Amino acid sequence: MPETKFTSDHEWVRLDGGVATIGITDHAQNALGDVVFVDLPEIGREVTAGEAIAVVESVKAASDVYAPIAGKVVAVNGALADNPGAINAAPTTDGWFFKIETSDSGALDGLMDETAYAAFVDTLA
Amino acid sequence: MADSTESLLETPLAGLHRELGGRMVPFAGYMMPVQYPAGIMAEHLHCRAAASLFDVSHMGQAELVGEGAAAALERATPADVQVLKPGRQKYGLLTLDDGGILDDFMVANLGDRLFLVVNASRKHLDLPRIESLLPAGVTLKPMPDRALIALQGPQAVAAIATLAPGIAALSFMSVGAFTIAGVPALVSRSGYTGEDGVEVSVPAEDAERFARALLALPGVQPAGLGARDSLRLEAGLCLYGNDIDETTSAVEAALTWTIGKRRRTEWNFPGAERVRDELANGTRRLRVGIRPEGRQPARGHTPVHAPSGDAIGEITSGGFGPSLGGPMAMGYVAREHAGDGTPLELMVRGKPLPARVAPMPFVPHRYAR
């Protein structure tokens, strides 16, 4: 299993064979509360790192989800349309948002590992 | 978040909220629980199924005393206050001279005085405004040493009546004084969730003991401001600052029912000229309910377009209705687009989301009529 990396925007990223799977962290889903809708990007869209490409809506509010790396969107989690609650129930597995194909094998180098992300979250409390 | 929370006030229940795991956020100058560990969805559904306790102590409470207090208050509102019998309460608007809405409020006739509840965010404006309109002999007394607790839901009255059986006999929008768990309490059969229930004013020093006594009752769970907001929106009720404000009139806001029949012959309330004209000639815009198609919510400030692309209004409150099982909104649209079923486009992040004008409430009221 490839290592999971984290952004300061509370996305997690797992890169496997040039394709990164991206979702939001358990901390993020907990802060958002009950998720009721997700607006996912078009497959085939070229995105830049840091670009807002999806929106997650909770009962309370709408929040942007950013592309942590540059590349092309090659898959989105269509199951979230009928079951957005998967983002709350299983944020780092079934609740994934989209996959981005990248040619940059070092794309995740600047992101946090799990220990660093946990320490980062502690600074927000 | 750069804003300092140091200057924010707390209600007498702040310690209890933290003990219960409440997530505290700044609201109207107070640190208030937006939700507890159960979450907004569960708290909302619990209120519709059983009974939920809300701390609304941030709201302003005041007494109006003296000969002619009801007539005096009518200088600040188009509500018919004089028609209120002892033990009865009503909802009304405080209006400005130009017809804008200063606030919405509740007024109860307690026999020897009137009891007012106003919004937290507006109390610093409401009370001086009312005071400035009072004749000699009528006095407004703010009650900063009181807490206000709402118990809402189909099991709310049965639950609290185990502590004070007389409460069960109150009809909707009636008030009475009771001793509950040893605490002197002013109880009104009212609320702002669309459910049956009560709002209870108690001395601040007794508030925590009183709240704990309610939370110990079967079926009662705490709920935060998040659930209160989704419940009131499902019930089609306005939130001051979102759905009504100093620019909106009672007629535009579809709140003409708060203007007393007698007041419509006397036309002697602040803003009467505008209201009279709008009742006769109609308004350019109207507050309506809106149902987006699909599951995507549209939030406050979302622009509303006609299918032709013309901008015709704006959403003032919008979200997801847990009991409704879908998105819901209210807002203002041009009068010719205000009919039930009229197709609209909500411009959510620049993309049109199809929607229709829909009757409110979105979830039927269950008041104890």
UniProtKB/TrEMBL annotation, chain A:
Describe its assembly: The glycine cleavage system is composed of four proteins: P, T, L and H.
What family is reported? Belongs to the GcvH family.
Q: Which NCBIfam families match?
A: gcvH, PRK01202.1
**Transmembrane ranges?**
none
Q: Which gene encodes it?
A: gcvH
What does the note under cofactor report?
Binds 1 lipoyl cofactor covalently.
Q: What role does it play?
A: The glycine cleavage system catalyzes the degradation of glycine. The H protein shuttles the methylamine group of glycine from the P protein to the T protein.
Name-wise, this protein is Glycine cleavage system H protein
Q: Which InterPro entries match?
A: 2-oxoA_DH_lipoyl-BS (IPR003016), Biotin_lipoyl (IPR000089), GCV_H (IPR002930), GCV_H/Fam206 (IPR033753), GCV_H_sub (IPR017453), Single_hybrid_motif (IPR011053)
Top-rank taxon, per record: Bacteria
- Domain Lipoyl-binding, chain residue ranges per copy: 19-101
UniProtKB/TrEMBL annotation, chain B:
Instruction: Supply the InterPro entries for this chain.
Output: GcvT (IPR006223), GcvT/YgfZ/DmdA (IPR028896), GcvT/YgfZ_C (IPR029043), GcvT_C (IPR013977), GCVT_N (IPR006222), TrmE/GcvT-like (IPR027266)
Keywords, ordered alphabetically = Aminotransferase, Transferase
Is the Transferase keyword given for this protein?
yes
Short name of any one Pfam family annotated for the protein: GCV_T
Does tRNA-binding count among this protein's keywords?
A: no
Can you give the residue ranges of the GCVT N-terminal domain? Answer: 16-261
**Record's catalysed reaction(s):** N(6)-[(R)-S(8)-aminomethyldihydrolipoyl]-L-lysyl-[protein] + (6S)-5,6,7,8-tetrahydrofolate = N(6)-[(R)-dihydrolipoyl]-L-lysyl-[protein] + (6R)-5,10-methylene-5,6,7,8-tetrahydrofolate + NH4(+)
Where's the Aminomethyltransferase C-terminal domain?
A: 287-363
The record's comment on protein family reads:
Belongs to the GcvT family.
**Could you tell me what this protein is called?**
aminomethyltransferase
The species is Roseomonas fluvialis
